[in-house]
Design a protein that fits this description.
4 strands, 2 domains
Length: about 100
């Protein structure tokens, strides 16, 4: 193999290695990742209830329905703490409320 061709092949192999190598700061490469990855995370979905007042809160009763201006087919934000992860839609699965992810942020 000539020197020019060997050099080109070496450069191509180096480029492929860079593309497939994990990022140096990737969480999965951290020594504590196996333990960290099993930690529980609280996800939350919230629907704004505009116009809800303290007197409405104090007047709540069991079985009462609270109306919102949120359209039933509109996506809702899924968050961890204050960080939004995705958008989703509510659906019922075997009589249980579920959230189908529609897009990641």
């Amino acid at each position: 193999m000539n020197e020019g061709r060997a050099s080109a092949l070496a450069e191509k192999n180096a480029a492929v290695a860079l593309e497939t190598a994990p990022e140096p700061n990737a969480m999965e490469g951290h020594p504590a990742w196996p333990m960290i990855s099993r930690l529980p995370v609280m996800l939350s979905v919230s629907i704004p209830l505009t116009g809800f007042r303290v007197c409405d809160l104090l007047a709540l009763e069991s079985g009462q329905t609270i109306l919102s201006n949120w359209i039933a087919t509109e996506e809702v934000p899924l968050k961890v703490g204050e960080r939004q992860l995705s958008w989703g839609e509510f659906e019922v699965v075997d009589e249980t409320m579920a959230l189908r992810l529609t897009r990641l942020t």
